[in-house]
Every structure is written in C-alpha cells, then in structure tokens.
Amino acid sequence: MTGRGAMSWIGWSAIAIVLALWALVICLITTLFRGADHAAEPGPDAPLRTPNKGHRDMSKKTLAAGAAAIALGLVLTACGSGGSTTTDATATTTTSASAAETSAAAEAHNDADVMFAQMMIPHHAQAVEMSDILLASGGISEPMVALAEEIKAAQGPELAQLTGWLGQWGEPLEMPGMGHDMSTMEGMLSEQDLQDLTDAQGNDASKLFLTQMIGHHEGAITMAEDELADGQFPDALEMAQVIIDTQKQEIDVMRQLLTTL
C-alpha cells in the first residue's frame, strides 16, 4: 500500500471510530436521563410531596455535562490516536522518499563522473596552492592579487562539492594507482614547478604564475569537456560547463595581464 493510500485508510478508520463513540455516548446520555427521571418519581409507599422541578433540572444538567465531558474525552482520544498514526505514516513515507532520492542520486552517475571528480580535486587543490604562493610573494600588483583571490574563491567551494559527490557515491577520493605524483595530469605542475614559483618575487613571480596558470586552466577545460562528453551526473555536468566558461574568461584576463608585465 502506498503512503497516500495508507493515510486515506487511517483517516476513514478514525472517522468510523469517532462515529461509533458518538453512538455510544448518545446511548449513555439517554440511559442517564431515564435513570434520573425514574429516581425522581416517588414510590407507592413514599409520602406525598411536591416534586422539586429545579432539583430535577439540575440533575439532568449535571448528567448531561458529565456525559458531554465523557464524549469529549473519547473523541479527543480517538482523534489523538488517529493523528499519531497519521503522523507516523507520514514520517515513514517521508523517510522512504528521502532514502529513494538518495539512492536515485547515487545511481545517476557513471565512471566518467567518478574520474572527473577524482581528477579535478587535486587539480583544483593545486590551483589554490599556486594562488596562495603568489599571494605570499612580495611586490605583487593589485590586479594579480585580485586574480589569485578570484581563483581561490571559485575553486575552493567546488573542491568541497566534488569531495561530497565521491562520498555520496561511495568512491575513494583518489583514483587507484594515482599516488602523489600528479604532474602527468592535464596542466598539473611538478614539485619543481611549484618550488620555482615559491622562489620567484615581484614581476618574475607574476609572469611565472600567469604562464603556469594558463596551462593549468587549459588542462581543467580539457577535463571538463571530457565530462560533458561522457558523464551523466547532472550536477557534475553543470560544474563542468561552469569550469569551461569561467576559466576561459580567466585565461583571457591572464593573457592580457602578461602584456603589462
């Protein structure tokens, strides 16, 4: 039975219970009134006295109030029970739907999506590292500082998103056999390249950073294009397109900056 069908069945059951309780209460009220009238009538051997009409009315009102209180309590109990059952059914349905969505999201990816995430994580991490190295250098112009900060601001959040996808899919963060040498990946720098950037200062650091980062961006664009061609996870495809658009614009900016140094 579906969640909606279960909720409908529970709702009709609650209504049936309430109607049955009302019928029981009506019978109870009728019996109480008859008992009250019978108790008010004098027996054959009792002395004659004038019936106290006010007392009889008060008894009836008291009995009616008591019966009404009982009815209200029964109805509230039934409604409370039905509401609790409905809430439980709703919670169960919501939990099941959430689990189904998570499962569907995990199944909506393929090997190309996994490779894209696993390769882009170290690629983005190195771009952030290169930007930090430049920002720590002396004699860097304001446009270069702005560029490095822009790269960090764009790629930092994407790193977290890529890592989250791999966790959701139950995949490792690194490709099997990749190790720590990433220099063979598209656009990645070697340890010596990073050391050269660290040692450079002023305009030399800016020129080296721009040259290295242009190649780095071109490698990221190639990886993103592969994802668009072979991947299927919607969010990964969207990120790949953003990487292509953003980093092409940044390459144009970097080439322009090179002409000013």
Summary of the model, kept short:
This protein is mainly α.
Key attributes of the depicted protein:
disordered N terminus; mainly alpha; 2 domains; 80% helix; 261 residues; single chain; Ferritin
What features would you describe in this structure?
The chain is elongated, with a radius of gyration of 39 Å. It is built from seven helices and no strands. It has two domains: 3-40 and 52-104; 108-258, Ferritin, core subunit, four-helix bundle (Ferritin, Up-down Bundle). It is mainly alpha-helical and 261 residues long. It has helices at residues 3-40, 53-107, 111-136, 142-169, 191-199, 202-230, 234-258.
CATH class of the largest domain: Mainly Alpha
CATH superfamily of the largest domain: Ferritin, core subunit, four-helix bundle
- What characterizes the major β-sheet? none
How many domains?
2
Mean pLDDT: 76
Count of β-strands: 0
Uncertain stretches: 2-7, 38-60, 67-72
Helical content, roughly? over 70%
CATH fold-level name of the largest domain: Ferritin
**Total DSSP helices:** 7
Radius of gyration: 39 Å
The name of the CATH architecture of the largest domain is: Up-down Bundle
The helix/strand class is mainly alpha
Shape: elongated
β-strand percent reads under 5%
The arrangement of helices and strands along the chain is HHHHHHH
